[in-house]
Specification:
The complex is a heterodimer of chains A (20) and B (87). By secondary structure, chain A is mainly β. Helix content of chain A is 0%, strand content 80%. Chain A has strands at residues 2-9, 12-19. In chain A, strand 1 (2-9) and strand 2 (12-19) form a beta hairpin. The model of chain A has no long low-confidence stretch (mean pLDDT 88). Chain B has 87 residues and is mainly beta. Helices cover 0% and strands 51% of the residues of chain B. Chain B contains no helices and eight strands. In chain B, the strands form three sheets. A three-stranded mixed β-sheet of chain B has the order 1-4-7, with no helix packed on it. A three-stranded antiparallel β-sheet of chain B has the order 2-3-8, with no helix packed on it. A two-stranded antiparallel ribbon of chain B has the order 5-6. The mean pLDDT of chain B is 93. Classes of the chains: A mainly beta (20), B mainly beta (87). Chain A binds chain B through residues 1-9, 11-12, 14-16, 19-20, and chain B through 4-12, 15, 26, 28, 30, 41, 45-53, 56, 80, 82, 84.
Chain lengths: 20, 87
């Protein structure tokens, strides 16, 4: 159940599930 | 001009997978949260790979061959895209 977390801005994390 | 995007301004609208020559791609479309004023993003996002919710210790690098990031203004009808690749 891997995911990637992107910080588009310092206070704006977005998590993308379903990687790997 | 518009302010930099911050907490709650953008959401993931679409994740499009692709694969070519052993490399997997995901293009992520980020759109304004409904009712949010236009805002700007600049450069590459910080990216961390997670395993079971924790950092997996996987190195990530920007790849300029996929395009150079400019400052973008995200508008209600104009999203921003990020492409992630891994092999």
């Amino acid at each position: 159940n891997d995911a990637v977390r992107l910080w588009v801005a310092p206070d704006l994390p977005l998590e993308l599930p379903g990687f790997g | 001009g518009p302010a930099p995007c911050g907490h709650g301004d953008l959401v993931v609208a679409l994740v499009e997978p692709d694969e070519a020559r052993g490399t997997a791609y995901r293009t992520v479309t980020l759109r304004l949260t409904r009712g949010t004023e236009p805002c700007t993003v600049r450069g590459y996002p910080e990216t961390i790979v997670l395993a079971k919710g924790r950092p997996a210790g996987v190195a990530t690098v920007p790849d300029q061959t996929l395009g150079r990031p400019e400052q973008l203004t995200v508008l209600p009808d104009r999203s921003a895209k990020v492409t992630l690749a891994w092999s």
